[in-house]
Amino acid sequence: MELRELLLLFVAVCGVVFVLVMAVMAWALLRSNNPARGRPQTERSMGRVVSAAIVGTVLVITFLTVSSFYATRSIDWREADPATIVVRGQQWWWQFTYLDADPAKAFQTANELHIPVGTDVRLRLEATDVIHSFWIPNLTGKQDLVPGRENGLTLHADKPGIYRGQCAEFCGLQHSHMALLVVAEEPDDYARWLEAQRRAAVEPADGDAAAGKLVFVSKPCAACHTVRGTAAGGISGPDLTHVGSRSMIGAGLLENSRGSIAAWIADPQTLKPGNNMPLVPLTSEELRQLTVYLSELR
Amino acid sequence: MKERIALDLSKLPLHGTGSASLTFWGTGAFMLIEGMGFALTIAVYFYLMSLAPRWPIEAPPPNLLPGTVLTLLLLLSIVPNMLVSRWAQRKDLRKVRLGLIAMTFMGAIPLIPRFFEFPALHISWDDDAYGSITWTILGLHTTHIVTDLIDTIVLACLMYSKHADNTRRYGDVEDNALYWNFVVLAWLPLYGCIYWVPRL
Amino acid sequence: MTGQAKIPSPADLAAGDEGAEAFLRRTWSTPSGLLAALSTVDHKVIGRRYIATAFLFLLLGGVLALSMRLQLAFPEARFISADRYNQIFTVHGSNMMFLFAVPVMEAMAVYLVPLMVGTRNIAFPRLNAFSYWIFLAGGLLLWISLALDTAPDVGWFSYVPLAGPQYGAGKRVDLWAQMITFTEVSALAVAVEIVVTVFKLRAPGMSLNRIPLFVWSMLVTAFLVILAMPAIMFSSSSLILDRLVGTQFYNPSEGGDVLLWQHLFWFFGHPEVYIIFLPAVGMVSAMISTFTRRPVFGYLPLVLAMIATGVLAFGLWVHHMFVAGLPRLGSSFFTASSMAIAIPAGTQIFCWLATLWDGRPVFKTPLLFIIGFLITFVIGGMTGVMVASVPLDTQVHDTYFVVAHFHYVLIGGSVFPLIGAIYYWFPKMTGRMMSERLGRWAFGLIFTGFHLTFFPMHILGLQGMPRRVYTYPPELPWAGLNLFVSLSAVILAAGFLIFFIDAVRSFKFGPLAGPNPWNAPTLEWATSSPPPPYNFRHIPVVRSAAPLWADGETLPVATGLRLDRREVIVSSVMAAEPEAREAVPANSIWPFLAAIATTIMLIGSIFTPWAVIWGAIPIAITLTGWFWPKQTPEDES
Ligand code: HEA
Ligand code: HEA
Ligand code: CUA
Ligand SMILES: [Cu+2]
């Protein structure tokens, strides 16, 4: 049974019970007084009705429990294959590691998860710091990422599209801004995307972008961020190798554009107060060059 | 409302003893609270154990000696404790006084092996979760011994004061004895947990 | 006091001697003056204080709710910073649960239970005084920390590791954990008092099947407190230990476990919600009988349902952890047990409906709140049944759907009956009636305001809005409903405001009530309003579950209690046969001093473990002062 149907079933059954209870209450309140009030006979017949209602309650909740149980099974029985993607939640962004039998083909990305449509994608959920919760409302229910434990979740998209998700477990200051996007693609598109992501970062031709690269590796940026193919190998911030290809930055905070990248780098603490990226002092020239460089990392 | 006298209670005693005493029930309720506390620490102990690859996580099992000595001392203390309780029931002031002094020692002496129990664990509270829970169990139980010890001392002083010869005081002595039995009995599962479970 | 000749005898009182009654009054009274106010052990004075303080916390918590609603009214609003918001919802939740809902129910019991069982004071009156001061200290601790901008900011259930030593910076979480300790100590103290009062201080003849239902509900609640609170004591203490001295309970890299916290918290936290709800069941049962003019239908099933709820309450905690990664199929067991709660809940509802059916409803304000309760609680219960289903919960967990569920059951299920109960018992507590007209306005505004505020939250939750977010982006479809919710919250607040105004005004100017303005059947109405310090001139003798209806105009009473000391009747647990005339302690300043000593110790121990050792000494001294006999008549035996 699908989740949607289960929800409708519960709402319908509970709705009917509610209406019945309310109807009895309204009738009890409105009816003119019964002359037979409190006589042993009324007590007895009320006793019978109340018992019947209790029996009815038992039947209804048994039915609901059993349907819930079957829905659990049909949702859970899909977890067959080993995980192919590791999701790591951290304050306050998502890191995705695409595993591969060939370690050279494995790679990392952030905040935007691509999956092929029509197949089950098995995720392994881990947390670096505190508990987070992975939740894509339109694809599947949530599952917590718990430090010291490993959880799993299966994603399955039938239709291509972009699905928004958001961390659901309170995880501190910027819990509100810990969103992610799931991009479900046709298998061909997905394969192309994988191919592109596996490549190292594009080498900037010259001019601003090349200058920006220099700024990036010489400033503290490189201590926190990785850009594969360069000297930048920090791991406490998102992998930026293909940051230009993502549609949002800052875990769903801003649409990706030159302007927003510049704004982010110029003052991350105002845009997302308390997040773990500090304000790195830059001249406006450096900022412009960095922005050009980063937005060309597609 | 108008009143109609239906019952005359002037013949009732001025103080309830045994199950007619309020403090008896109050002590019982507090024992229930603390018993639940002990049960939870035991549950946490087994929970952590079920998660650990080895148990103890990173330590040899604790030395048996101090814990076992303490256990024997506590069990031994039950005898004078019951006697004090019986004397209190009989309102035998002289014996109760002596008994309370004896119980002061019987309560204080176990603190000596208890002092050695902590090092006998071979682990510090902040080393790992095993250390944390075992220290917590010992610490929690020690506060119980100390609380009852202080209570016993205060009672002993009271029994040497002018307030002594009073049914209420004897009742207090009985409740204190009851509580000491609880402290001793609660220790037994804790002892089993700390000292024998790691050896299973 | 020594002039034996001057002490009147019980027979004088029985003969209607006014001097004798004055003497009795003097024995039991609380003199005026600050010292006396700090020393009183009268359960009515303490109960009233307790209730007023808890309602003050409701008001303050409500103001926090309004400020959250202001921030959430518009997407990306900047009225309140992220850090402030996190403090606010944490304090709102912790305050409402630990400083309002639980204490207010216990406070009602502190006031009412001794009157309802027909005795002159609660068992362990000094412990009762101590409990109030400790509660007050805990409340001040939390609110002062909010005023200083260092309030806890990790939610009312403080999940580790966010609350642990590594991520919970500063002393914020310690303040939270210690506030818990304060409220637990006070709740446990009251629970012990209630158990012993109900077991041993019932009026002669009040056998088990004649105990008023409110008293039953408080008895079950008290047992829930006794069995559930040790879990939160353990968890909050171990959290402080982890933070202060480096124990590793919750550190996975040293053999600790993050989910252990959740198990311990919810093993307490679920019973906690029934600790809040069961007293409301008792209140509804008490009031519904008065306002339908017949005994409540199904006394025995109602008692059994309360006990069943209490027992089941300990088997449900995992339903708060359905997405934490425990085995799914194992979790289904907790689906079943959670749903099973619908059986006792339904039983209660059906019994009340039957009472309404056969009764002659009198539409006074308390009955209006009962009707509001029935409507609202059944909806809240239904959403409870929905979130109890594992697959549905994976969607709605930690969303506004759950926020809607718990406000429906907390406010609809407990606060509505509570406000009705205030209208109902206010005349007893103050001697004056509240306004029926303002009462209707309050009900109308609270009821409509409530549903307009909280019903849309179900939809927001289904639309994917998570809880505990200080803001949300404008492109999501949540803005409209949020604005609507926030505006409706103003209606709700207006309703509460009218209620508060009515209460304050009536306290001074309400029409005089007389002993039994509602013509109610239970013992608290057998004495004057407000009751004299000794509650009853003579302890009533009980012969039915509705004594004031059964006995006509004259109440059978017992004589023989001394007038020169505070004497109560101790009776047997089952049949309530008198066993002794027991003295209960007189006023004393020591509980207040002991509470101060305890407060210093508890607050000090946030900063250094040595505070526990040094702080124990003043506590021991004050406790000794508390229990040391003072050669009063109360010490005679
Ligand atoms: C007064 C408080 C109160 C009460 C009474 C309840 C009552 C119930 N609650 Fe609720 N609950 C809370 C307070 C309360 N709850 C709080 C505070 C939280 C959130 C904590 C947090 O996360 O911050 C919570 C969260 C919560 C969750 C976790 C949700 C999540 O976090 O994802 C669940 C899951 O099972 C749940 C279930 C239930 C159930 C099954 C009942 C049942 O008792 C309801 C039973 C009643 C009825 C069903 C209605 C009457 C019955 C009939 C008319 C008979 C006919 C009925 C049928 C046939 C169905 N509650
Ligand atoms: C009994 C408990 C109780 C009560 C009564 C309430 C009452 C209210 N609650 Fe609360 N709530 C909780 C228990 C309770 N809540 C809990 C446990 C949480 C979870 C916390 C957490 O996640 O950790 C929560 C969380 C919570 C949230 C979610 C926050 C989030 O997740 O980000 C919201 C949001 O709207 C909310 C709103 C309200 C509102 C509008 C009221 C209203 O009913 C309040 C109405 C009352 C008043 C408004 C006071 C009277 C007003 C006046 C006298 C007017 C005077 C005012 C001025 C002059 C300004 N509550
Ligand atoms: Cu991560 Cu909330
Ligand atoms: Cu629950």
Quickly list its features:
heterotrimer, A: 298 residues, alpha+beta, 5-stranded mixed sheet, 3-stranded mixed sheet, elongated, B: 200 residues, mainly alpha, Four Helix Bundle (Hemerythrin (Met), subunit A), binds heme-A, binds dinuclear copper ion, binds copper (II) ion, oxidoreductase activity (chain B), Cyt_c_oxidase-like_su3 (chain B), oxidoreductase (chain B), transmembrane (chain B)
Task: Describe the 3D structure.
- The complex is a heterotrimer of chains A (298), B (200) and C (637).
- Chain A is of the alpha+beta class and 298 residues long.
- Chain A contains 8 helices and 12 strands.
- In chain A, the strands form 4 sheets. A 5-stranded mixed sheet of chain A has the order 3-2-1-5-8, with no helix packed on it. Chain A has a 3-stranded mixed sheet with strand order 4-10-9. Chain A has a two-stranded antiparallel ribbon with strand order 6-7.
- In chain A, helix 6 (258-266) packs across helix 8.
- The mean pLDDT of chain A is 90.
- Chain B starts with a strand and ends with a helix.
- Chain B has one domain: Cytochrome c oxidase, subunit III, four-helix bundle (Four Helix Bundle (Hemerythrin (Met), subunit A), Up-down Bundle), CATH 1.20.120.
- Helices cover 71% and strands 4% of the residues of chain B.
- Chain B contains 6 helices and 1 strand; from the N terminus they run βαααααα.
- Chain C is an all-alpha fold and 637 residues long.
- Chain C has 20 helices and 4 strands.
- In chain C, helix 6 (125-147) runs antiparallel to helix 7.
- Chains in contact: A-C, B-C.
- The interface between A and C is large, with 74 and 76 residues.
- The structure holds heme-A (2 copies), dinuclear copper ion and copper (II) ion (CU).
- Residues 89, 92, 132, 167, 169-171, 175, 178 of chain A line the site of dinuclear copper ion (CUA).
